[in-house]
Design goal:
heterodimer, A: alpha+beta, GMP Synthetase, Chain A, domain 3, 2 domains, three-stranded antiparallel beta sheet, three-stranded mixed beta sheet, globular, B: alpha+beta, 2 helices, 26% helix, 40% strand
C-alpha cells in the first residue's frame, strides 16, 4: 500500500429479520438494520444514517486537519448532517446533504481563520467528493 | 413508503483530536474519527462508515427481495473493501468490492437467490448515490 491508495474492509453478518452485525477489525461492533420506513425495526442504525454520518465525520476530521495546519485552536465543533433521500428514475437516491456546523473559538481574530478552515474542509472532504449528490454547508463560528 | 423525500439527520460532536460522537436520535452513539494517536485507532473512520453504508444497504435490499419472492436464507454475510485513491489533488473512494456469501436450505431456490442478489445490487440506493463503481462477487451454498 502506498500513500496514494488505502483500503477499508468492513464485514457484515446478517443475524435476523432486517438486522445484522457490522464489524471493522479492532473496532466496536455496530448493530445495523433497514430503517422503519423500509420495514426495519425502530432504534437501530441504518445504512442511510451511516451514509450521512460518513460525510459529517469526514467534514469534521478534514476541519481538524486544516485547523492544525493553520495553527488554529477551537473550543468546540458540532455538526448536524441532514441527508435527503428521494425517488429518482432508478429507485431511490440521496439527492442532497446539508451540513450545519458550529465552531466555537476563543477570540474574534480566529473567526475568519476558522471560517476558512471550514471552507477548505468542505472542499476537500473526500467522502462528500465520493458522493453524487451536492453537499451544502451552513457554517457558524462564534466566540465563547 | 410514500413518495415524499425522507430526511436522515445525524449529530456529530467533536470530542478531541480527530474524534467525535455521532448520534442519531434514539439509536446507539458511534465514536468516529481518524486516528491521530494509537488510543484513537479503535474508532470508526468516515471511510469505514462510507463503505459500511453501501454494504448494509445491499443486505437490506437482498432481504427485501427475498420477502417479495417468498423465499428465505439461512445466512448472509458480506465482506466489502473500499479503495481510497488520489484523484487529481485530493482523495476519493474509487471502488468498492463486495463479496457476499449466502447459505440456503435447498438447491431449488438457487436461481431465485441469484436473482435477489442481482436486484439488490441494482437497486441499492446508497450504492447508487456514490460516484464509484461497486462490484459484487456472490457465492451461494446449499447447507
Amino acid at each position: 500500500m502506498t500513500d496514494d491508495s488505502h483500503e477499508y474492509l468492513v464485514k457484515l453478518d446478517w443475524t435476523h429479520g432486517r438486522v445484522g452485525d457490522l464489524t471493522v477489525d479492532g473496532k466496536p461492533k455496530i448493530q445495523v438494520s433497514a430503517p422503519p420506513e423500509f420495514d426495519g425495526p425502530e432504534g437501530i442504525i441504518s445504512p442511510e444514517d451511516l451514509f450521512v454520518a460518513a460525510a459529517t465525520s469526514c467534514f469534521m476530521t478534514t476541519f481538524v486537519t486544516f485547523s492544525k495546519k493553520m495553527h488554529i485552536e477551537f473550543k468546540s465543533f458540532s455538526c448536524d448532517g441532514y441527508g435527503t433521500l428521494e425517488r429518482v428514475e432508478k429507485g431511490f437516491q440521496f439527492t442532497k446533504l446539508l451540513l450545519k456546523a458550529k465552531v466555537v473559538v476563543e477570540s474574534d481574530e480566529l473567526i475568519p481563520k476558522a471560517e476558512r478552515a471550514m471552507e477548505l474542509a468542505g472542499k476537500y472532504c473526500l467522502v462528500s467528493n465520493s458522493m453524487k449528490c451536492p453537499t451544502e454547508h451552513e457554517n457558524e463560528v462564534t466566540v465563547g | 413508503m410514500s413518495e415524499e423525500p425522507r430526511y436522515f439527520p445525524v449529530n456529530l460532536t467533536w470530542t478531541g483530536g480527530k474524534s467525535g460522537s455521532l448520534s442519531v436520535e434514539g439509536k446507539t452513539t458511534i465514536k468516529s474519527g481518524s486516528p491521530l494517536s494509537e488510543d484513537e485507532a479503535s474508532y470508526h473512520t468516515p471511510e469505514d462508515l462510507f463503505v459500511a453504508s453501501a454494504t448494509i444497504c445491499y443486505m437490506n435490499g437482498f432481504l427485501n427481495f427475498l420477502d417479495k419472492m417468498h423465499i428465505s436464507t439461512i445466512s448472509f454475510k458480506c465482506d466489502a473493501v473500499g479503495t481510497l485513491e488520489k484523484v487529481d489533488r485530493s482523495f476519493e473512494i474509487t471502488k468498492i468490492e463486495m463479496k457476499a456469501k449466502v447459505v440456503i436450505e435447498s438447491e431449488d431456490i438457487r436461481s431465485k437467490i441469484d436473482r435477489a442478489l442481482e436486484l439488490a445490487a441494482k437497486y441499492c440506493f446508497v450504492g447508487n448515490s456514490m460516484k464509484c463503481p461497486i462490484t459484487h462477487d456472490t457465492e451461494v451454498i446449499v447447507k
